[in-house]
Amino acid sequence: MTLQLPPSNLLRATGYSLAPSSTNPESNGTDSDKTNYHIEQASWRDLNALRRLEQECFLRDAWPLLDLIGVLAFPNVVRLKAVLDEEMIGFVAGDVRSSQGLAWISTIAVFPRFRGRGIGRALLEACEGRLEVSRIQLSVRISNQAAIRLYEDAGYHREGLWSGYYEDGEDALVMQKER
């Protein structure tokens, strides 16, 4: 099944990157090093930190500056960050499409050195909790098996495929959750 791209300036089909880790993914903010983080609202003041996160996590798929400004400024976007010692260590944005009765998780990322601690899952759940729709979609590189497992564990199922979506020709898997 191939889906049509939804109209939006705030959609990334890169998905969340996870790296294997020996830390407990259900730690909800605490690992063996007693690393505590919290999740809070992100704003335009987070632009530079979000740029660094994008460049480190997404390399060739990083959003351009104008898209980052948009995700931090457009109305009807849920934007949250994970913070540790006053530093952004993760980010998620959800774009509500009221006319379609759904929302898109536009982007989600956690700095590689903080992965495997449940931060991505916590960001995803916090964003979902603020999206007042019954259907949520997201997209992810078909090769990103760790992210696909995270999404499936969170209740998403495979909905379709965007063939050749990425600049390098890789497909994007579209996933959906109904609640």
Description:
The chain has one domain: Aminopeptidase. The chain contains 4 helices and 7 strands. The protein has helices at residues 47-58, 65-73, 119-130, 145-153; strands at 38-41, 77-84, 87-97, 102-110, 135-141, 157-162, 172-178. A 7-stranded mixed sheet has the order 1-2-3-4-5-7-6, with helices on both faces. A hairpin with a 4-residue loop joins strand 3 (87-97) and strand 4. The chain is globular, with a radius of gyration of 15 Å. The protein starts with 37 loop residues before the first strand and ends with a strand.
Shape: globular
Q: Estimate what percentage of residues fall within beta strands.
A: 25-35%
Distance between the termini: 22 Å
The CATH architecture can be given as 3-Layer(aba) Sandwich
CATH topology, anyone?
Aminopeptidase
Given as residue ranges, the uncertain stretches (5+ residues, pLDDT < 50) are 1-34
How large is the count of helical segments? 4
Please give the largest β-sheet.
Answer: 7 strands, mixed
Number of spatially distinct domains: 1
CATH H level, superfamily name: Gcn5-related N-acetyltransferase (GNAT)
CATH domain class:
Alpha Beta
The SS-based structural class is: alpha+beta
- Which radius of gyration do the C-alpha atoms yield? 15 Å
Average pLDDT figure:
85
- Name the strands of the widest sheet in spatial order: 1-2-3-4-5-7-6
Report the order of strands and helices: EHHEEEHEHEE
Helix content: 10-25%
Short description:
The protein is α+β, with helices and mostly antiparallel strands and 179 residues long. It has four helices and seven strands, in the order E-H-H-E-E-E-H-E-H-E-E.
